[in-house]
Amino acid sequence: MSRAGDLRALLDGPDAGIRDMVRDWLSEPGHAPVADLPREAYRAQVTAWAEELAMDGGTAMGYPGEFGGLGDVRGSIAAFETLAFGDLSLLVKCGVQFGLFGGAVLHLGTMRHHERHLTAIARFELPGCFAMTETGHGSNVQALATTATYDPGTEEFVVHTPAPDARKDYIGNAARDGRMAVVFAQLVTGGEARGVHALLVPLRDPDGKVRPGVEIEDCGPKLGLEGVDNGRIAFDHVRVPRDALLDRYGQVHPDGTYESPIENPAKRFFVMLGTLIQGRVSVGGASITASKSALDIAVRHALERRQFGPPGGAEALLLDYRTHQRRLLPALATTYGLHFAQARLVDRLHEAFCLEVTERRRRELETLAAGLKAVASWHATATIQACREACGGAGYLQASGLPALMTGTEVFTTFEGDNTVLLQLVAKNLLTDHRDQLGELDPLGLASFVAGQVIGTIAERTAVRKVLGGLAADLLPGRDDGLPLRDRGEQLGLLRWRQEHLLQGAARRLKGGMDSGRAPFDVLLDCQDHVAEAARAWVDLEILEAFADAATASADPALDRLCSLYALSRVEAERGYYQEHGRLTPARSKAVIRTVNALCAELRPDAGLLVEAFGVPAMTAAPAVPA
Amino acid sequence: MSRAGDLRALLDGPDAGIRDMVRDWLSEPGHAPVADLPREAYRAQVTAWAEELAMDGGTAMGYPGEFGGLGDVRGSIAAFETLAFGDLSLLVKCGVQFGLFGGAVLHLGTMRHHERHLTAIARFELPGCFAMTETGHGSNVQALATTATYDPGTEEFVVHTPAPDARKDYIGNAARDGRMAVVFAQLVTGGEARGVHALLVPLRDPDGKVRPGVEIEDCGPKLGLEGVDNGRIAFDHVRVPRDALLDRYGQVHPDGTYESPIENPAKRFFVMLGTLIQGRVSVGGASITASKSALDIAVRHALERRQFGPPGGAEALLLDYRTHQRRLLPALATTYGLHFAQARLVDRLHEAFCLEVTERRRRELETLAAGLKAVASWHATATIQACREACGGAGYLQASGLPALMTGTEVFTTFEGDNTVLLQLVAKNLLTDHRDQLGELDPLGLASFVAGQVIGTIAERTAVRKVLGGLAADLLPGRDDGLPLRDRGEQLGLLRWRQEHLLQGAARRLKGGMDSGRAPFDVLLDCQDHVAEAARAWVDLEILEAFADAATASADPALDRLCSLYALSRVEAERGYYQEHGRLTPARSKAVIRTVNALCAELRPDAGLLVEAFGVPAMTAAPAVPA
């Protein structure tokens, strides 16, 4: 096989067949993204595509076999990731219908919900919504204001929107197609609040007429994803039967007695949310795919387009310019790194759905899903913008494919959790693990833990001594200390050191703040940037670990270089921190910059191959950007 | 006057009257941006608006009095900057018609062109194009391939597109409205190439029919600016009379004899381009306005929207979170800084058009215009994206105003010169100044210059000693050395030091490369990132100098803090460099981060006031983002 073929096989992994199936579908006539339809026609087209996909049966892949599926979580995510090469409105429409809506029925409902609805959902015969976010509450979902009050007299729930701020907002599939919604609401039984639960509420009759008590408003034009019919939903005392409650984690008996396998309401809520993790993983995966599409366009352009050059000679290719290499190649390296980290995450998720795993494993999964989604979606936004710029005026035309990528994925930084909020979640989980270690070691362990912290601090100070040596080395320019920067162990060591140092520092500051008697919320606010950085550093390390394994597994030297480029461009971006904490000498910090430049130059000849390996299907490789 | 009023007066400057006039126009019913018209209707609307503006006479403000203008360059830029609060397609349409097209006739043409066309251009009775960019050449304009060959037999020029790559591309006003174009082409007389010149070429008859030999194609859908009719133009041996040549810098006599006041063709070309500087300045100004609009939306949202909070208490305002302050407030500070630097640039430009200035002054102007445009447009792109994210799902709706800002300004990083290319131009000019100093000092000066360089290197190495002391101070956490970081002189010193250090380093590397006998182009490629950083650092310093003066002139303490926040957030972003070169100790570098955090917290209560002072007209403050 060719080098590009080998790399593609490595990237496509065990689900190469599924990925190729989706690529084939996207390459068929009539399945290419539409750039220029009026909104309503675009929405109709997206619905027609979704129905077509549903008829093929692939949309149920993640569901259990008895409902037409294969119970194949990994395969269904691979399909979704690949679909992101195509029209992004179709992708999001499918995500809402088969992932969010169907996923909520599957994971929060019980057998009767599955039997009644899953097949129809997978066939798009029952288009539905995931009605969680409200106008007033997006991130803080525990504070949703919609209520579902149980009436034992009629054995019904009364679903109600108590204020304009409590409308369900930005809900996909709502403005045009949705027949039913999974509505998240504060459950009240016997006059007592039971926390947020999900219920199935019909929105429209089979003929499409909005049902009495339901009010639906179109969200109107958006930045992108114009083929998705986002809307606002309000409920005026809408009554649904008792079995409309998706009752896996909380049951209401006919008399209103409430029962749950999970005692603690906060914990119950987070377990419920936790089952919906696949949405977050899918958005992360789609972000990576979009980055691939954009890099494919921009790198090919940079290998055709010439501008300026040596006096009298031919003009140089854009990719021969260092500034251009700097724009594209570290982003390419990061995209590969994210791909491998995502593949590892999906493997673990697949395993978690198939086997019983410990709570600790589940939390790890949640942490990685949140962190990767945040980093991958920010990366997509930055990369697509850089690619647009790297293609100049041509990149601004819809024909280049870049505008749809930009406007369609920009909101991925908000979807499935605002990225900044997600990083807080990551940090919280990491700190909890920290505390858990503490818990397991107690009582003797506590002392050694605190001592460990002190030792850490002392170590940092003594590191200063080493820095003194390093600085003296500065007088002999070019000398480096430590292992070579291209050594994988050194790269892992650098990222690991930063992650641990930041996390320990955050833990120390939080503890110090609490100990001084300040209000916990104020202490948290004061450390918020530090905490977010600790989370980000942890994700960076996770990516490098996955990338390092993949590079080792592959015989292609380009992958090894690409891995180094990823690692060192992260170190370069954080070299202020590394020097502040005595981990890099000034001379070595400068060497990082030089090595990044050298790696870019070395990877330049392989750039075309490296994007070819993404296997972007022909149709999204749009009308080529004019060279 | 209120604090916000005082600040607004300071920002609006001497042209407050003109700015308010434009604000009033934008606030009139029917002048608000359209978010959701089909493309052709949108284009028609934009044309109607442009005609309406032209009837009011304000569009000729920058032209000489005899053609209905006021010769008021500063005023015309102030009007353009303010117009950027409104529909961005209208802004760009006006920029193309009155700025680029009219400006080329004004600056490259002579009296007969002015008399024949300027009044009609100012009235939008002669819609026109600025046909410079070709499919194959955007940045490297000297290599354009369109030809204009003089035929002495008929005393005509034959304008021709020799290859598909030589089509004029992305040309505003071309697809629908343009009757005439200023076409940049390689002039050939007497069989000899004379370099790029501009000619007036009719495109359409008065009834709108495209003229024989001219071929116009619509560029089709774009990322944004859908109200502007961009197109591609090809010429098949189109004949225009001899006086179609805009002949201020090059005349062709009836027999084909070529004459120019500027002997050197390269120099002539750059003088010609130099007269078109106003376009670049205008794009920079519009970028700053767009940043203001976005920050106005996001800050107001952050002062209304609550999410999470202390247990049991009310939810906290978004702007109370440090991560949110970090997203918005340094961007706010930078926007103020850019505003003051832009005002200074416009003053100098105004002066240059009114008075005779030296070549050196002209070059300084060109350098600042290029650098500010690059930094301001990148800043707009990053800021608008951050603001979108800071508004969550609501920010993704067109109703928030943010999508139009994002898609309409993203291409400003490409308009009027790709930003990366512009930074190279800035660096080249700075290095030329460097060399000029050298020239003036020769022969004795050369020695002292080289000695100075060496002294610089030694100084850097001895700085290491100081760092040793600084590191020792690290053992006593929190101790800072040097002047307080909030000291304006210290801030200026830090940015100035970096700028000089980078520039000298770049000069040294370039000279070293040349001296070693390598090809100059290869040497340049090898230093390209260094050179671009030197340029960027110079712009940062220019911004801080202008901001510092404005802060001194104002009595409002918020402005002083905002100036410190701008300066220190730049230092923070480059703290890796400062430490590498021994200018900041690790302890002091950490203190920079703490001070940025502290300044954000101190400015938090003034954030609403600071955006109010931008005077965003009511109509663009769109349907408020739902809180």
Give your account of this protein's structure:
2 copies of one chain form a homodimer. Helices cover 58% and strands 9% of the residues of chain A. Chain A is α+β, with helices and mostly antiparallel strands and 627 residues long. In chain A, strands 1, 2, 3, 5, 6 and 9 form a 6-stranded mixed beta sheet that branches. In chain A, strand 2 (147-151) and strand 3 form a beta hairpin. Chain A is globular. At the A-B interface, helix 9, helix 10, helix 11, helix 12 and helix 14 of A face helix 9, helix 10, helix 11, helix 12 and helix 14 of B.
Largest beta sheet of chain A, briefly? Answer: 6 strands, mixed
Structural class category of chain A: alpha+beta
Global Rg of chain A: 26 Å
Amount of beta strand of chain A: 5-15%
What's the total helix number of chain A? 20
What is the average of the pLDDT values of chain A?
90
Helix content of chain A: 55-70%
Query: What is the terminal-to-terminal distance of chain A?
Result: 30 Å
Which pair of protein chains has the largest interface, and what are the residue counts?
A-B, 89 and 89 residues
Q: What oligomerization state is this entry in? A: homodimer
Q: Name the overall outline of chain A.
A: globular
Tally of extended strands of chain A? 11
Point out poorly predicted stretches of chain A: 438-480, 621-627
